[in-house]
Amino acid sequence: MTQVEDTSRDMRLDPDSFAQGYFKNAVYRHWDPYGDIPQEDIEADRRKFIEDEPTEAEFEGLRTTLALFGAGEEAVTEDLMPLGMVLEDINKQMFVSSQIYEEAKHTQFFDRYWREVINPVEEELGFDVTRPTDQRFFNDDYVELFDRNEAAMERLLEEDTPETRAKAYCHYHLVVESVLAQTGYYGIQSAFSDQGSDEVAVREFPHMEGLVEGITRIRSDEGRHVGFGMQEVRTLIHEEGVDAEVVQNTLQDLMPLVAGVVRHSSQGEATNPIPVIEYSRDKLSRRVEILTEQDAEIPPVDDLVKIEGDGEAAAD
Questions:
Q1: Which of its termini does the chain have fewer beta carbons within 10 Å around, N or C?
Q2: Conformational region of residue 53, where left means phi above 0, alpha means psi within -120 to 50, and beta covers everything else
Q3: Domain residue spans in the chain?
Q4: Inter-residue long-range contacts of 242-249, CB under 8 Å, 24+ positions, other chains counted
Q5: Contact 228, 168 (CB under 8 A)
Q6: For the segment 9-39, what is each residue's pLDDT rounded down to a tens digit?
């Protein structure tokens, strides 16, 4: 049935649905990776890195982390397409469309930061000038994690069942975004701001307002994305009969890959991977509790997108 022939609804949209509420929130909180991250903050980051004179080994950890993020945002911009195609509800379709747009926007921020900060700092300090597409930044665990994510999403086009949907949401919304990405953002905020944990950075680095502002806005978007995925998985478990063990096993199966990526991104001399890996494990445990406990509640979307004083969103 085409949308024109659909007579099952009086109005096109359901303003009271959680998905439409999430979409409205995305529109309201729109931001521009160029216009809303001040040029003076980006220039200040560049200047402070040069004045701080990190060793190339210290700088390597940041380069690796940003390369992983940029590639990940680009990959999911494409990989989410099958989910949008199989969803029947227009309110959910609209939200997933906004999410794909936001992932593309995040890709733009990381591209900007590499061009305007990473490369100029490398040139000024005499480091090798790198490209974010250099394959040395991507270890086997990272490649496998995103290959599995792509496969889980593409499977929806061949076998769209409650279980395959739950697995798709687990791969992307609950592991790639909720655990891996949020863990990476936590590490960056810990190292380059007064948020997070003092145990992450091996030494004190200058605060990088441009980087942290971009990360904060991206993290806010992803609080909304994670909340949407959690709502969907809870519905699949508690209303559509998906066994909670399917969700738990999928998440547990992917966690060794997450740990491998975190260790890889901390390969330089600037950060300590142990508290970051512990953070990712704690986050997974909290996710499983919210998904499986009958009386658990996901915070309202306005709370999900807030960044608290310690750098953690309500979705955390």
A1: N
A2: left
A3: 38-304
A4: 242/162, 242/163, 242/166, 244/291, 244/292, 246/163, 246/166, 246/167, 247/166, 247/170, 247/288, 247/291, 247/292, 248/288, 248/292
A5: no
A6: 778 899 999 999 999 999 999 999 999 999 9
> Token pair for residue 261?
């990526």
For the record, the structure tokens of 190 come out as 């810990």
| CATH number belonging to the domain at 38-304, selected among 3.40.190.290, 1.10.620.20, 2.40.50.140, 3.40.50.720 | 1.10.620.20
228: CB partners within 8 A, 6+ apart: 18, 19, 22, 95, 99, 173
Structure tokens at 176: 């790639």
Tell whether pTM > 0.85.
yes
What confidence tens digit (pLDDT) does each residue in 130-168 have? 999 999 999 999 999 999 999 999 999 999 999 999 999
Token pair of 58 as six digits: 């210290």
State the amino acid at position 314 in one-letter form. Answer: A
Q: Which residue has the tokens 């903050």?
A: 41
Name the CA dihedral angle for 180, 181, 183, 187, rounded to a multiple of 10 degrees: 130
Which residues, at least 6 apart from 143, have a Cβ–Cβ distance to it below 8 Å?
none
Residue 18: C-alpha distances to residues 59, 148, 296, 303 (Å): 42, 28, 16, 14
The H or E element spanning position 85 is helix 81-86
**């929130």: which residue's tokens?**
25
Q: Is it the case that residue 283 has pLDDT exceeding 90? A: no
